[in-house]
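<backbone_tokenisation>
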Amino acid sequence: MSETKLKLGSLFDGIGGFPLAASWYGIEPVWASEVEPACIRITKRHFPNMRQLGDITKIHGDQIEPVDVITGGSPCPDLSVAGKQSGIKLKCENCGTLVEFSDSTQKCPNCGTVLELTRSGLFMEQIRIIREMREKTNECYPKIVIWENVAGALSSNKGDDFFCVLREFCKLMAERIPTFRPEKWTNAGEILGESLTHNIGEFPSVAVESSLSQILQDNASEKYSLSMKACAGILRRAQSRGKNLHPRLKRALENQVRIGQQQEETM
């Protein structure tokens, strides 16, 4: 992965709006997912070197090139106020029953037919691809994720669909997810750091809980970093004492050991 140039992957690409905006700021679009032939023809004309991956349901995040940024404007018909606002749900094509999305729900409770995602529910495919890529790259990529949609996403199913979006993104980053949600979504807000502190409003309040990652220095001196030997020692002692390290800490230590070994091999 280049250290000087960010790379972008665009899901639900349309005519390449996100790749175009990214290219204005020196970000390189390397792949896109779109199924409409007319849209693909337009994008190929403007970005001939950008790989077209096709149907999002057939893409695996651990088998494509890792990128710094993944964008996606998942289909809006089930969220827009111009439609029925069926939302991000599972739908039975046999009897039309709509079911709340859940990792464990697979069949219609009424007729037993295998459930399919609503068109707007294809957002979950975006989450799946991001999760697969992060697992493959030890949570290094993507670094930034952007989800774009219609304003109706804030009101669809009385705001539950937007809460579903926030919850699924949080699940990518932490074991604990926010349970608080406002009665009505406002124009701006944020969920902060590992603590997942919810702070929403057009002018978020100053008094919010901060996470460690928000106050750590980005380019600290090497003397403050753990050496490969120290990381290996922590892993070894935890194993010998039967201690279970936090998964993210364990992956970070293992990653440092691997990087150190690779550096030694090239010396």
About this structure: The radius of gyration is 21 Å. Strands lie at 7-11, 28-32, 51-52, 69-72, 89-91, 98-100, 116-117, 144-147, 189-192, 197-200. The chain has two domains: 7-75+123-214, 222-266.
